[in-house]
Amino acid sequence: MYDVTRRQLMHLGVGAAGAAMLSGLPVPARAEDQTLALYNGQHRPPVEALVAAFTAATGIAVVTRNGNSAQLASQLIEEGANSPADVFWSEESPSLVAIAEKGLLAPLQAETLKQIPAKYAARDGAWIGAGARSRVVVYNKSMIEESALPKTVLDFAGEAWADKVAFAPNSGAFQQQVVAVSLLKGRDVALAWLKGLRQHGRIYNSDSAAVEAVEGGDIAVALSNNYYWYALEQELGPDNMNSALYFIGQGDPGTLITVSGAGVLKTSKKAEAAQRFVAFMVSAEGQAAIVGAIAEYPLRPGVVSPFPLKPFDQLDPAPLTPADLGDAAEALALLREADLA
Hints:
By secondary structure, the chain is of the alpha/beta class. It is 39% helix and 16% strand. The protein is built from 14 helices and ten strands. Strands 1, 2, 3, 4, 5, 6, 7, 8, 9 and 10 form a ten-stranded mixed beta sheet that branches.
């Protein structure tokens, strides 16, 4: 009987896996044999688009557990080392910050972090932004003129806007806006703003419900994210829209950039594939898949959204990064003090 070496097996076409089996070495996992567990708090259309593109490109399947970002973050913290999750994709960066602070995220690969501007990722490389959105003012064109809208989001809490402003205090993006007001204007100003909104504004369960109320003529103005308006425009058609977007700009917290993003769980048993998934998110192909399904801004230079977004470099947003906003715990404290939580 001949002694067949590993090199001879490769030469004969047995392949790496077959050679490993016959030589008693560990068998490397094939991409098609791997399935990643994704905990997802992001809207489903961009996730489904990215997962489909990733699986087509790599052969790696992805099973998704969908839920609220903050709730999934709490679940990950509770599960700890026993979590089955490989990747966490959050609609809001504070949920990523929360689990990173618990030491649950593995550092992302340096090459992955290079794909987008550093200000849209964790300072220590634990998570990375996958898409950006802007806080905006949605207004009903028949109820108010754009020229009558204020130059700062703080003015919407005044008596002049009584029963004209819709807002969603349980929205993660609104809570980040609260943090932005506190950081830029001071805690006392943020608390007064919230109390003014509670007294004069109208509370809705979600940003999307607030935008729909403005479009339907139930209220004049809503504080929201840009993509909820674009989703409605896509449904109704541009020529049928009763509402429009107003960007305050001028570094005001009314135009705040927030991100959705992802990180790899430190306890993942499929770390290499999980890192590959996050790397794909910020690749040109991955970014195109994401922004083709939702009106978020791509974070990778050179990728263009198919939606008619206001150019990113013209937003003049609040001078804060997602990392500056932290885990938004301060927002929850302020909301409780203002009797909004």
